[in-house]
């Protein structure tokens, strides 16, 4: 029987956190539960690998994706980082790329405004880092990003003087990853983009 810290990594615990994320209306509670899943799914050790698969099997991914629509900055941040960690599992990465990309892009600032929810710098960086993880080693997910009209926002962030250096750097890393997929360049160029839009700004 599990004992000590192993108790944290049981399916019942994952189900408990997912139940909280489904039923709670309290932003602090939601942030804490998402943060717990974020911590349990971090890293490359055996238990984290197990948690990432368990969240998927317990149908937790749609619960987290829906919470990207939250009006709470801290909830969006915690959920984004949790999804980034969960996407280290290949099957999760494919699913998150298919179903979460649109919500992630909607949380990014545009030329007109920082974002629809005026998210803080740390949260925008978290969303960008999550997108980067999702498209790494997945040209299909990068294609999904293009289809959500994400390139326009990413280029605007990377070239903007009103965004923080951390935000512009994170956006530039995403753009560099997209351009690395040679099979996507024709589609990008047809949309009016060229190599200069994807060069990393340091």
Distance between the termini: 51 Å
The Cα radius of gyration reads: 17 Å
Largest sheet: none
Overall pLDDT, averaged?
91
Strand content: under 5%
Low-confidence stretches: none
Secondary structure tally: strands: 0
In DSSP terms (H or I, runs of 4 or more residues), the helix count works out at 12
- Report helical residue fraction: 55-70%
Q: Which structural category do the helix and sheet elements fall into? A: mainly alpha
What count of structural domains? 2
Keywords: Cell adhesion, Cell junction, Repeat
Subcellular location: Cell junction
ARM repeats: 59-96
Protein name: ARVC protein
What features would you describe in this structure?
The protein is mostly helical and 202 residues long. The protein folds into 2 domains: 1-88, Leucine-rich Repeat Variant (Alpha Horseshoe); 113-201. Helices cover 65% and strands 0% of the residues. The protein contains 12 helices and no strands. It is globular. The termini are far apart.
Keywords:
Plakophilin/d_Catenin; cell adhesion; Leucine-rich Repeat Variant; 2 domains; 12 helices; Armadillo; ARM-type_fold; mainly alpha
